[in-house]
Amino acid sequence: MNNPLVSPGLGVIVWMVIAFGILAFILIKWGWPVILKALDDREKTINESLNAAEKVRAEMAQLQAHNEDLLKQAKLERDEMLRNARLTSEQIIEEARQKATIEADRIVENARENINYEKLKAMHELKNQIATLSIDIAEKLIKEELADPQRANEIVSRQIENIHLN
Fold first, then answer.
1. Which residues contact 1 (CB under 8 A, 6 or more apart)?
2. What pTM was estimated for this model as a whole?
3. What is the pLDDT of residues 50-66, one digit of tens each?
4. Contact 63/56 with Cβ under 8 angstroms?
5. What is the domain partition of the chain in residue ranges?
């Protein structure tokens, strides 16, 4: 086992210590501050990201609460609009019902007036026909009664006696 890496000599150890010291000096002088600065920057970036995430989470919660408020308000407005539409439709139906009732009453009244008019007209025509028939009958009776001149003189005399002068 004469391998120099496994059992190094004193000269190799000295050079290794010197190389390690130089490397450690270079790292401490120029590398370590850069590494520490990078670690600090990384830590600051992580903290800033966490703070930003917390702010975003708070804003999201606030937006969600605002959205819920808007949703509640929209539901209230929708309910109000539905209630107004229902009231409006009920009013329109009631107005239509009233107009229909008024129109029906007017039609019934017009029908009654027409019926009364037609009734009066029929009665008038009936009276005219009765009068015409009565005159025709009276004319025929008078012709028969007055066909005999002696009988005609008697009837005229009797009618003259019946007339009272005022």
1. 7
2. 0.41
3. 999 999 999 999 999 99
4. no
5. 10-162
